[in-house]
Amino acid sequence: MRIRPKLVLTFSAIFILAFSSSSYAAHITIQSSLLDSGISEEQSTSILEEIGTSIGIVSAIIGIIAVCVVFWVSARIANPISTLSEKLKSQEIGKKLRNIEIKRESIDKDDEINEVIYTINSMINRLNDLEEKKDVFLSMVTHELKTPASTIVGFSKVLLNSKMAGELNPEQKKSIETMKRNATRLEDLIGDLLDSRKLGLSKMKFAYANVDITKLVEYILHNNKNITDEKNIEFVNSTKETIFATTDESRLEQVYNNLIRNAVDFVPKEGGKIEIGVKGDDNKIICYVKDNGIGISKEKQKELFNQFYQVDSSLQRKHGGTGLGLYISKGIIEALGGKIWVESELGKGASIYFSIPKIKEERSNNENIGN
Amino acid sequence: MKILEIDDNQDLLDLCEVVLSAEEHEYTGINEPLDGLEKIRNEKYDMSLLDLSMPDLSGVDIIDTLVKDGLINKQKIVVFTASSATESEYSPLLEKEEHFILKKSLDVDALVEHVHKIESEG
C-alpha cells in the first residue's frame, strides 16, 4: 500500500491533538489527587480552577479531534459515496447505462472508493453488454416467430376467400377459421412482446397526423363487431360529437382494441354489453370503453396497468393473455401525452377511460413510420 | 398492375402471388435479391415490393442502388419492414419517404388495400 501524504498529515494532527489531550487529562488526575492531601482552602480553589481550565482545554481538543474526524470521513468517504449514489440514481431507466466518473484528487488504484467505482463501472459494462445481447436475441426470436405466424394467417385468409381458393365445405371452413384465429393470436402476442420491449426501452415510434377520432371510433366498432357478435355481446358507440386530434391513429386504435378485447373476456355470457366512445373539450379528448362485466376491486385496480398483471392469476383462471395489453395501453397513452384510468366496482362492470391532448405535446416522439 | 416482389422467404412470395394474382395483377416473385435488382433495372414495373431484411442485399441497399441509377421515381416501392429492423436501418428509408410506403409486417388485407390505393393514385 502506498503512503499518502494527506492521510499521514491528517493522522499526525489527530495524534498530536490526542497526545495533548491525554497530557491535560493526566494533569487533571494529578491535581485531583492533591485535593485529598489536606491543603488550604485557597490552594484548593486554585487547583479547582486549574482543573476547570484543563477540562475546558481537553473538551476543546476532543471537539477539534471530532471535527477533524468528521471532516476527514466526510471528505474521504461520505461525499464520494453520496456523489456515487446520485450518479447511479440519475441513470435513465431503459437507456444504456453510463460509466460513473467522479472527479477526485486521489487517483490511486488502491483508494477504496476508486476501487468501488471501478467495480461498479465493470458491472455497468457487463450489464450493457448483456442488454445488447438480449435485444439482438429478442429481435431475432420475434422476427423468426412473426414471419411464420404471418404466413399462416395470410394463407388462412387466402383459403377463406372463395375468390382466391374456391368454395369450402362447412367443416373445412371451421378448421381454417380456427387455424387463423390461433395464428392471429400468436401474431398479437408476439406484437405485444415487441411493444412491451419497445416501451421499456422508450423506443416506440409514433406517427402523428390530424385524426378524425369520431370516424376512427366508428371504424373500431365495425372492426370488432365480429368478435362481439360471436359472443352475443351488445356493442355500441355512444359518441355524440365530431372530434379531431393530432395523434397516432394506429396506436390509438391499438389501445381501443386492447380494451375492447379485455372487456369481451369479462362480460357475462348472457346480456353482455360493451360501450365505446369519445368526448372532448378544448384541450383534450377522453375516450372510453365500458362493460357490464364482473368489475375490478379497488385493490386490483392499483395493479391493473402493471406489466404481466392478471386480474385472475389462478390456475383455474378463465381468461387468457400475457398481462401486457393494459401495460402497453398505458405506455402508449402516456407517450402520447395523456393518462389512463379505471372506474369500477366489483359486480358493477368496469369503465376504462383515457385522455390525450388534442394537439401533440413536444415531449412525445415523432417519427413518421407508417403502419 | 405489373408487380415485382423481392423477398428471401419463398412462402411469403407464394402467398403474395396467390393474393395479387387473384386481384388480377401481373405478379413476379424473386427470392434472390441480386436477381431481383437486375429485374427492376431491366424491366418496367408499376410497383415493387421489397423485404427490408434480406441476406446479401437488403431492401435499403436496393433502394440506394435505384436512387443512384435514377430509377427510383419510375415506380412505386413498397417496403416490408421486419420487426427486427433497427432504427439505423429505418433512418435511410425515412429520408426518402415520399417514394414508398413502410409496413411493419406482412398483412394480406393491408397489402391488397395498399396496392388498390397506389393503383387508384395512378
Give a quick set of tags describing it.
heterodimer; A: 371 residues; alpha+beta; Heat Shock Protein 90; 3 domains; five-stranded mixed β-sheet; 11% strand; elongated; disordered C terminus; B: alpha/beta; 5 helices; 5 strands; 46% helix
Structure description:
By secondary structure, chain A is α+β, with helices and mostly antiparallel strands. Chain A has three domains: 5-91; 139-200; 209-357, Histidine kinase-like ATPase, C-terminal domain (Heat Shock Protein 90, 2-Layer Sandwich). Chain A has helices at 5-35, 41-89, 112-160, 162-165, 170-200, 213-230, 249-266, 298-303, 325-335, and strands at 209-212, 234-237, 244-247, 273-280, 284-291, 339-344, 350-357. In chain A, helix 1 runs antiparallel to helix 2 (41-89), helix 5 (170-200) crosses helix 9 and helix 6 (213-230) packs parallel to helix 7 (249-266). The longest helix of chain A has 49 residues, at 41-89. Chain A is elongated. Chain B has 122 residues and is α/β, with parallel strands linked by helices. Chain B contains five helices and five strands; from the N terminus they run βαβαβαβαβα. Chain B has a five-stranded parallel beta sheet with strand order 2-1-3-4-5, with helices on both faces. Chains A and B meet through helix 3, helix 4 and helix 5 of A and helix 1, helix 4, strand 5 and helix 5 of B.
Concise structural overview:
The complex is a heterodimer of chains A (371) and B (122). Chain A has nine helices and seven strands, in the order αααααβαββαββααββ.
Q: Supply the CATH architecture of chain B.
A: 3-Layer(aba) Sandwich
Number of H/I helices of chain B: 5
> How do the strands line up in the largest sheet of chain B?
2-1-3-4-5
Secondary-structure element order of chain B, as H and E? EHEHEHEHEH
Report on the biggest sheet of chain B. 5 strands, parallel
Rounded average pLDDT of chain A:
82
Topology of this structure?
The complex is a heterodimer of chains A (371) and B (122).
Chain A (H helix, E strand, L loop, with lengths): L4 H31 L5 H49 L22 H49 L1 H4 L4 H31 L8 E4 H18 L3 E4 L6 E4 L1 H18 L6 E8 L3 E8 L6 H6 L21 H11 L3 E6 L5 E8 L14
Parallel strand pairs in A: 2-4
Antiparallel strand pairs in A: 1-3, 4-5, 5-7, 6-7
Helix pairs in contact in A: 1-2, 3-5, 5-9, 6-7, 7-9
Chain B lengths: L1 E5 L3 H13 L3 E5 L2 H10 L4 E5 L7 H11 L6 E5 L6 H8 L5 E4 L4 H14 L1
Parallel strand pairs in B: 1-2, 1-3, 3-4, 4-5
